[in-house]
Amino acid sequence: MKLTLVVACALIDADNRVLVAQRPEGKALAGLWEFPGGKIEPGERPEQSLIRELNEELGITVKEACLAPLTFASHAYESFHLLMPLWICRRWEGPVTRKEHQDLRWVRPGKLRELAMPPADAPLIPPLIELLGP
Ligand SMILES: Nc1nc2c([nH]c(=O)n2[C@@H]2O[C@H](COP(=O)(O)OP(=O)(O)OP(=O)(O)O)[C@@H](O)[C@H]2O)c(=O)[nH]1
């Protein structure tokens, strides 16, 4: 089984809402709502990858000191096993801009279950509710 390491981030706004982004058409799991992030490239540290992905996908600049580890997903997809650490971030520079996704939404953690998310993401929701409220 191929192990794939993906880094992801829950950006949190002043109202304790979380940013989710809709995967583009043409990609695996298209249309599902995910946490911004992506695969680690060779030679990158996980935090560097995440900072790069957040810049590419959302146009924001994040400092490593503003990333805090929250939890992780470990999920067996058919063709690979996903291991995905989730960081949270409350501080960034620049406006959040849609660059690669179909759509972006700020949602209360308690509403995440109402969105179609990748199956790996379900266990990430309770820790967010515990931290931020429903
Ligand atoms: N960023 C992100 N990826 C997730 C989440 N949940 C989840 O299962 N994934 C999976 O983790 C992988 C993320 O990699 P990616 O977005 O960089 O990859 P991709 O499918 O665009 O493939 P590619 O970059 O090779 O074209 C995908 O297989 C995606 O389905 C999530 O919440 N956020």
Automatic annotation (TrEMBL):
Protein's UniProt name: 8-oxo-dGTP diphosphatase
Source organism of the structure: Xanthobacter agilis
E.C. numbers: 3.6.1.55
Residue ranges of domain Nudix hydrolase in the record: 2-130
Listed CDD domains: NUDIX_MutT_NudA_like
Family: Belongs to the Nudix hydrolase family.
Cofactor names: Mg(2+)
Class of enzymatic activity (EC top level): hydrolase
